[in-house]
Amino acid sequence: MPLRPVQLSRPPLERMMKIHDELRRGALVNCTKLVKALEVSRKTIVRDIAFMRDRLDLPIEFDAQIQAYRYTQPVNSFPTIHVTEGELLALLVAQRALEQYRGTPFHRQLEIAFEKLAGGLKDRISFSPADELRAVSFKNIGLGKTDLAVFNALSSAVLRQTVVTFAYRKPGDPKKSTRRVQPYHLAHRENLWYLIGFDLERAALRTFALPRIVDVADTKEEFTRPADFSPEKFFATALGVLGGRGDWRVAIRFTAAAAERVREREWHESQEMHDLPGGGLELHLRLGALTEIEQWVLGWGASAEVVAPAELRHSIQETIKKLAVVYRR
Q: Which residue pairs from 99-104 have beta carbons closer than 8 angstroms and sit at least 24 positions apart in sequence?
């Protein structure tokens, strides 16, 4: 079914800000004029003014002599939010946390939204947490780079449920291939944006890294996303991004030195940890594929040993042999 344009009214906050501006400059403000200016019903105007008076403590009264609303005393700013010092500190920490998303399409939009929110607080509270924030920082290694045009085209297709075509290059493949995909979901995982969609030529769900996608075209051909699809279900068997249809029971043994770091984080929904004599740890996972877990285990060096399955242990042994050849050169 084609999308129909929807007539949207002003958001409540925008309406109240307009009413506040009119009252503040001493204009003649009554329901008749506001209904015409804001294009809403009289009932909505009355409700907005009541909220401003009763919930935001603005000094509004109706003057029967002039048949209009007015402020009974000067109002310097619109009280958008009431916050405590702790809440403001949390807000500023959140601003610092935005830096870990630099390079993603949402960074600038989030930054603008934060600036608007913080701007409404400056007349409500006097607090400078600069010294405290020097002790707070965020750093993610390897943030993915995404073309905003590609992201916007795909996000629009996901929302409208329309088929897209694009050129895609698989890792290690010098050539691009054309894909025709029903886009189901956009996910930000492991510091990179991914598209999950049904590849019509291959008749299977696939995961596509956005930095490898170019030349996106919306075919306008509509489809219906399966009711039983969910990103949580799709990624349930993945350590990070790459799931699978297997049912691998993985067991990894960590030395005492590494065990402390392993205990400190949540690695997967299926994880179970068992303490070993001497301070070591055995981690159990249930995964759909072994590619990501092999790379993860190798990252721990000699501090981690795969106990099961035998296929994963053998694959790591072969990788270690290849590494030995590389480092003998």
A: 99/138, 100/138, 100/139, 100/140, 100/143, 101/143, 102/143, 103/143, 103/144, 103/145, 103/146, 104/143, 104/144, 104/146, 104/188, 104/193
